[in-house]
Amino acid sequence: MIANLAQGVQAFTSNVFLVTGERTVVVDPGANFDVVDAIDSRVADLDAVVLTHTHRDHVGNLEAVKEAFGVDAWGYDGSIDGVDHEIEDEESVRLGDHEYVALHTPGHKDDHLCFYSADAGVLFAGDLVFQNGSFGRTDLEEGDRQTLVESIDRVLEWVDERLGEMHTGHGPSVNTEPYDHVELASRMARQA
């Protein structure tokens, strides 16, 4: 089960996905709202926090979640404050009841990861791509348009038309033909 705990929150935050199952995790704890209470109202225990990347809107609540639930955070770059364990490119990570492959996808930020499970048909895209062909900003520090295009293309090498759900860092999740949205983002990022 995947639930967006930030849905309806009127604050500058990323989406916050609670993935329940064998290994209950939060993908990106968000910022500027009481995510601890939101987690606590849905689950008795949390196993880990997994990060797509460490921009402030995605990790502002990180320390509060780690402290409240006694969990560690997993991300690409262990040298960044708050990241306790590194996830290597193409490493397998359990989220809920499924194994996901972690794909290092820089371009928006150097430590950006996407998580894809072929079995579940789910992609956690972070801020790499969004619905309707939108894609992550490249005008921030560590942003690079060509690198972003290459990262989107890399995701396209892993996913296919059977992709059933794409959960993005901002905006609504995509449950109708999400592969087409990733493909469109690849084209749009080249043109912008």
TrEMBL record:
GO terms for molecular function: hydrolase activity; metal ion binding. Its cofactor is Zn(2+). The keyword Signal does not apply. Residues 13-167 form the Metallo-beta-lactamase domain. Signal peptide: none annotated. Keywords: Hydrolase, Metal-binding, Zinc. Gene3D superfamilies: Ribonuclease Z/Hydroxyacylglutathione hydrolase-like (3.60.15.10). InterPro entries: MBL_Glyoxalase_II (IPR051453), Metallo-B-lactamas (IPR001279), RibonucZ/Hydroxyglut_hydro (IPR036866). PANTHER family: HYDROXYACYLGLUTATHIONE HYDROLASE GLOC. This is Beta-lactamase. The lineage of its organism: Archaea, Methanobacteriati, Methanobacteriota, Stenosarchaea group, Halobacteria.
